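[Meeting: bench + compute handoff]

Bench side (C.D.) handed over the final construct sequence. Compute side (W.E.) agreed to return the predicted structure before the next meeting so the bench team could plan truncations. Sequence as handed over:
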Amino acid sequence: MRTPALTLFAASFAALSASFALPAAAAPTPITLDQAMSHPDWIGTPVEDAWFSWDSKQVYYKQKRTDSPVRDTFQASSTSGKAQLVSDAELPKIDSGDVVYNRNNTRMLVIRNNDLFERDLKSGQLVQVTRGATRIGNAQYSTDERSVQYRIGTDWYVWDRATKVTGPAALPRAAKDPNAPEDDNYRATELRLIEHLKRQKDDRDALRARNDELRRVDASMAPTPVYLGDKVTLEASSLSPDGRWLLVVTAAKGADKGRAGKMPRYVNESGYEETEDVRTRVGRNMPTAHSLKLVDLRTNTVKDIGFDTLPGIATDPLAALRAAAKKDPLKGNRPVVVSGGRNAIDWSSNGANVAVMLRSVDNKDRWIASVDLRDARLKPLNRVTDNAWVNYDNAEFGWLPDNRTLWFLSEETGYSHLYTLDSTGAFGATAARALTAGKWEASDVRWTSDGSTAYMLCNHEAPGDYEVCAVGAKGGNVREVTKLDGVERFNLSPDQNKLLVHWSSSYTPVQIATVPVSGGAATKLTDTRSADFKAREWIEPEYVAVPSSAGGDPVHAKLYRPAKLEAGKKYPVVMFVHGAGYLQNVSKRYPVYFREQMFHNLLVQQGYIVLDMDYRASKGYGAKWRTAIYRQMGHPELDDYLDGVKYLVGQQQGDAANIGIYGGSYGGFMTFMALMRAPDTFKAGAALRPVTDWTTYNHEYTANILNTPDIDPEAYKKSSPIEYAQNLKGHLLISHGMIDDNVFYQDSVRMAQRLIEMKKDHWELASYPLERHGYVQPEAWYDQYRRIYQLFERSLKQK
């Protein structure tokens, strides 16, 4: 027997399904919940990889077939946009988006199907360098450009264009040198007493010495392996373009990686329950420190590079917390890892200079240093330090064509900007030149081949408005090249006259266009949206700036509401919280949360207003905005959402008595914090795949913000929703995939047990046996959002 409330809800849900089944012309947003949560192919498959042809006249791109995992390749004129399918027979003749140019843009290396090719950009000739290779990495031209260097696994190879010969260039080995003398008394005694053994050893040594002499003058001979010892593991290596040096990153062998988790899987083809190994928790496996070794490949001499020269390396920024937790102080230098953006190590094209990006394991310092190749010594060039944490994004750097000027991105002013620096000066003696400045972010830098101009992504005009900008190598005016509002990424054409731009908008998935580097109108090459999707009328989000009670900058947000509010009516409110913490959702781009955007359309159609906020910690607003949550996750962000409630009630006719909130991952965490730390404000919430206790999450993300549980337990207690469970008053839905290997299902189970023990009412746990962190099956998406909709209908509309 149904209660009156359930009968009323059933009627409203039936009405919802019926109203959205009407023809497109009958409603401004003709979308059913089933359609919104169905496989996104119905929207139209977006453009994926895209690249210019070698002569810059054509553009190639890949696109997924509808209802199929197969990708097709299409060809379009870079000026007209008329596209056609590339036949299978033509595929071997084209390139890919994974290319490396030589200094003058007359040749390029292409990696396609895990093999390496070279294209002559004057004649168009394509030559295959490898066939059937395993994954190739770090393809580059030699200093004289007569050969090509590349890495397979830990080994480096070189291909000579003239002879067409391929051979090893450097063979680093994490093993003992089998020919190295051993400090062994028995061996020494035998060699002293037995003349025959002594002669054999001397003969072997003489032959090796002679072969080493010949290798130095005879390039046709293969190099011998470089033995780095059996106490290390090889983490990375980088070969100098002149073939002289190898810079190797190592870690201590056998480092404790902490106790891994065991995740049960209940639904399997075998019919039996199974388990899957998953990551360790924060603080249980501190990142393994790195070491640097410099190898002279002419002599196979190996030298260790110390970190003593890095400014601040011996100072522990966590010393006070460590002392308060009664932990032993750190001794000596802080551990360091080699970690960068596209590359953590970058050589100048002449092989004379190399730059390395390093981070302290506590991630409160980032250094860029060059290496004195003669003395095997680091020379610091730039340091960024932050009492909270240094951003992992915006970590790009490299050398300009003069082989002495380093360019890099840095947040030292509080925003990511582009700098250049003469590497010949002493640290701190030569000031870096800022090429960009202001309250906006520069990223994804591409230089012209002559080093005269840098192109970059920028949100120059507004935090959520991304274009391609250009600036000269000496600084000056920053020029916006594109006017597309939602640029995602871009490439420069081989002739350097055009940009190939991936762009999107609120209801347009990623498409491509070409734009002259001088600026002007974009030639849009694709529109892959389906006719059904394009025919629908969508609610364009209104971009609003919510005043902040914390002072300073407002909180940028997207508002979904009826075009005209009814006079005197109060609207129930739903607030959406994006995931990842450090992510930007209030932009002009196609949202990661495109399903949620359609759901917001549906909610507005049913009488709600919806606010989607870029709360503090979100991307695109500078370092201060990002690090406001240091040691207090869920506190500044909740203040921002409470400010959002005030804004909606005060300016948008929001109903203060009926406020709901939902989100996934970090958004699920924030839903808990809202319901449990502001229980009198938020009446209902849906926490999807939520973090409930930060001590169970991963190290790389969590330790940045909360340090580690052993030295900063109060930060974890203050930031974990499970510590506030006793405050729950409202209606709560917890939804979680049972094989989530990012935020473990255990998080929701532990919260459920906590709520059971506290005898809490009006909550439920929905579990999805075959879903991970990002749901895949349309049925799971539908079931989850049906529950969210039902939650809001029964709790925000019933009087």
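W.E. noted at the follow-up: The two ends are 21 Å apart (CA to CA). C.D. will use this when planning the next construct.
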